[in-house]
Amino acid sequence: MRITEIFHSLQGEADAIGWRTVFVRLTGCPLRCVWCDTEYSFHGGQWHDIDAILAEVARHDVGHVCVTGGEPLAQKRCLILLQKLCDVGYEVSLETSGALDVSAVDPRVRKVMDLKAPGSGESARNLWSNLAFLHQRDQVKIVIASRADYDWACSVLVEHALAARCMVLFSPVHGAISPRQLADWIIEDRLPVRFQLQLHKLLWNDAAGH
Ligand code: SF4
């Protein structure tokens, strides 16, 4: 598999926030969200076989492993990697764009699946059939860059009964919308969603390796 980086840090978002976690960042993504903060993962990387990845993860003595990207599901062997990480006994999460089919992901994996709002430039890529494969412990994340994105997210929330399926996370685009503004809208509208800021940005300002 082509890997951009494997590193040990704190989980910066979603329901495992704050846990020491090893991140396995797979190289490549077929999307180009305008606010993407991991463009360095689009190209390059190094080839590792799955056993080498498992050995590197094991070095860090953690309970949580996050498989991320890029778009990890763009590499077919990602499904095997996820399964093997679960077999070892890790709490495994998968960060995915919502544009690729998640139906074959091991049910032990916690999926953190984006739905792309219009401000991402990639809204047309949302694969709505994925919603049928979400479990209660999965999470849907909508990254919001503007009031128009927020209004879109509110409509999607109702239209697809998202909050009844799993936890829904609303997150502001760093530098595009004030976090406080988004928090105020969520409170005013009494939304059944969880507001989140990315911990790694607050702690390390997105420096490499975190
Ligand atoms: S799906 Fe993720 S990695 Fe790909 S362009 Fe969008 S934000 Fe970046």
TrEMBL record:
It catalyses: 6-carboxy-5,6,7,8-tetrahydropterin + H(+) = 7-carboxy-7-carbaguanine + NH4(+). Residues 16-206 form the Radical SAM core domain. Its EC number is 4.3.99.3. Its cofactor is [4Fe-4S] cluster; Mg(2+); S-adenosyl-L-methionine. GO terms for molecular function: 4 iron, 4 sulfur cluster binding; carbon-nitrogen lyase activity; magnesium ion binding; S-adenosyl-L-methionine binding. Substrate binds at residues 10-12, 25, 68. Keywords: 4Fe-4S, Iron, Iron-sulfur, Lyase, Magnesium, Metal-binding, Queuosine biosynthesis, S-adenosyl-L-methionine. Pathway: Purine metabolism; 7-cyano-7-deazaguanine biosynthesis. GO terms for biological process: tRNA queuosine(34) biosynthetic process. Belongs to the radical SAM superfamily. 7-carboxy-7-deazaguanine synthase family. HAMAP family: QueE. Catalyzes the complex heterocyclic radical-mediated conversion of 6-carboxy-5,6,7,8-tetrahydropterin (CPH4) to 7-carboxy-7-deazaguanine (CDG), a step common to the biosynthetic pathways of all 7-deazapurine-containing compounds. This is 7-carboxy-7-deazaguanine synthase. It comes from Rhodanobacter fulvus Jip2. The gene is queE.
